[in-house]
Each structure stands twice: as structure tokens, then as C-alpha cells.
Write a structure and sequence with these properties.
By secondary structure, the protein is α/β, with parallel strands linked by helices. The chain has two domains: about 120 residues, no CATH class; about 150 residues, NAD(P)-binding Rossmann-like Domain (Rossmann fold, 3-Layer(aba) Sandwich). The chain contains eight helices and twelve strands. The strands form two sheets. A six-stranded antiparallel sheet has the order 3-2-1-6-5-4. A six-stranded parallel sheet has the order 9-8-7-10-11-12, with helices on both faces. Helix 4 links the parallel strand 7 and strand 8. The two termini are about 15 Å apart.
């Protein structure tokens, strides 16, 4: 998770550690391939699923930290590029009812590895463009900082963005704001919630044009009521968009049944909807 990435990078400035990651899973396991945990002498960052597997992994990681680097190759585990890979049978060996087999990779990490680690741990995040730096946008960025997304946060007001940002968020000033749509990565999801209905309409129209040409956006969600969307539909139809094209837009956004209008409630509802698309 991105917030954990920031915590890992901060810990690396104070002590060397061991990155434990799920290398492969056969059958049922507590976490998916790529899940990770960083073990330091006095603390832990993130989780590979808890339970006895994690307990054993922490012990193995701290044992690795205590050994000179030259002893790595003598370990019974596989040695490859300063990494050890160990097999854990969850049922027979650890008494966990998952019943599968998990291979964990143990890698020594230090401060010099921080730039490469940041790039690597953020590489699996899904692209997400968030148009609008208002109250809901800020609440969403806070929620998305804990989720596997790489967020491009876009607004026509350059001064709107906070000084401190999570590592998975990049801010972009775009005026006109809808011009940024053309440069979004393929496969991006788009959330539209600017301070202006006119800007919202321009961004939605730009997304529909891009979808008509390339069909490479994953999701476009527009904040607002059914009444707002009905008004937008008429205006977009006047611009030449068909009913089939307009059906690609989700408005209102958020999980059905969550009715609160507080920014934090909307943010959680929208984040849950995004996760349903994964």
C-alpha cells in the first residue's frame, strides 16, 4: 500500500532491514503474490497476512539481519541477487487452515535502495485521474493513499494542492483542465469533481472523445445528482454524443445505498466502487 511505502522509505533512513514479499502461492494463502512486509530491528511495516506465517517470516528476517552478508549463500534457501526464497507449507508446517504453499522472498534493504524500492513498490498501482482539488477530492486522496492506485490529481487552480502528498499522488495544474485528458495513461480510471459544473462538462466531453477514438479508459465517474446528469446528457447530446456513448459515464458515483454527503463518506463510497472494478 502506498502509505506503507512512505513508512518503509522513512524507516530505511534510520536502519537497514529486510523486505519480505510473497513470491508465489500454490493453493490457498493469506495474501496474494506481490504482498510485502518490511522488517526492521525495532519495527515492522505492512503485512503478508498475519498469523504463524508472518511470525515465522519475521523471525527469519531478523535472523538474516543478524548474519554477515557473506553467509547468505550458505543458507539452505535459494540465493539469488542478495535474496533468499523460502517455502512454507501452511497446513503441515505452520498449522494454518489455508492449506496452501507460500514461497516468501527475503531481501536485505538499505537507504541506498530507497529510490529503486519506491519505483518497484508503486509499479503495480492502477492509474487513476482525479479532476478536482476540493473537499471531496482531498478526502479521496487521503483514502487512495492507502490503496493500490497511482493518482494523477488535476486542477485548473495551481494553488489548490496541499504541500504534503502521499507517494502515490502526483499533482498537475492544467488550464484548461480538460486538456489533461489527452495525456492520461491507457487503462486509467477517471473521477470528475471540479469546483465548476462547466469544467466538469468539459472533462466529461474530453473523456468521451478519447473513448470514441481509443476506447482505452477503464471508468469515468462524475460526482453529482441524477438531475445534474440529466442536464449534462442534454448538453452532451447537443455536442453529438450518442446514448450508447453517454452510457459509459457513471453518475452519480459511489456504492449504492451509501447516502451520506460528508466528503469522507463520499470518498469511501467512491473508493469502494473503484475496488469493485479491480
Amino acid at each position: 500500500m502506498p502509505r506503507h511505502t512512505a513508512e518503509l522509505l522513512n524507516q530505511l533512513q534510520h536502519a537497514d532491514g529486510v523486505l519480505v514479499s510473497v513470491d508465489s502461492v500454490q493453493g490457498s494463502g493469506p495474501r496474494e503474490v506481490g504482498a510485502w512486509m518490511a522488517v526492521f530491528p525495532q519495527t515492522l511495516v505492512n503485512t503478508i497476512g498475519g498469523g504463524h506465517l508472518e511470525f515465522q517470516a519475521i523471525a527469519e528476517a531478523r535472523a538474516l539481519m543478524a548474519r554477515p552478508v557473506s553467509e547468505n549463500a550458505a543458507s539452505t534457501a535459494t540465493h539469488e541477487d542478495n535474496a533468499l526464497t523460502t517455502r512454507y507449507a501452511l497446513g503441515p508446517a505452520l498449522g494454518q487452515c489455508c492449506g496452501g504453499v507460500v514461497h516468501l522472498k527475503f531481501e536485505r534493504i538499505r537507504a541506498a535502495d530507497a529510490p529503486a524500492l519506491k519505483q518497484r513498490l508503486l509499479a503495480n498501482g492502477q492509474p487513476l485521474a482525479l479532476f478536482g482539488g476540493g473537499h471531496v477530492g482531498r478526502a479521496l486522496v487521503n483514502v487512495l493513499s492507502t490503496l493500490p492506485y497511482n493518482v494523477q490529481w488535476i486542477d485548473s487552480r495551481d494553488e489548490i494542492f496541499p504541500a504534503q502528498l502521499p507517494p502515490n499522488v502526483v499533482c498537475e495544474h492544467s488550464d484548461p483542465v480538460h486538456a489533461a485528458v489527452a495525456d492520461l495513461p491507457s487503462g486509467a480510471s477517471v473521477l470528475v469533481m471540479s469546483f465548476s459544473h462547466a469544467e466538469d462538462l468539459d472533462v466529461v466531453a474530453a473523456c468521451l472523445k478519447r473513448q470514441r477514438l481509443h476506447g482505452d479508459l477503464k471508468f469515468v465517474g462524475l460526482i453529482g445528482s441524477k438531475t445534474k446528469w440529466a442536464t449534462f446528457q442534454h448538453r452532451l447530446e447537443a455536442k453529438g454524443f450518442t446514448a450508447k456513448e453517454l452510457a459509459f459515464i457513471t453518475c452519480p458515483i459511489g456504492v449504492s445505498g451509501i447516502t451520506g454527503k460528508e466528503p469522507e463518506v463520499i470518498a469511501l463510497s467512491v473508493a469502494a466502487q473503484l475496488l469493485q472494478l479491480r
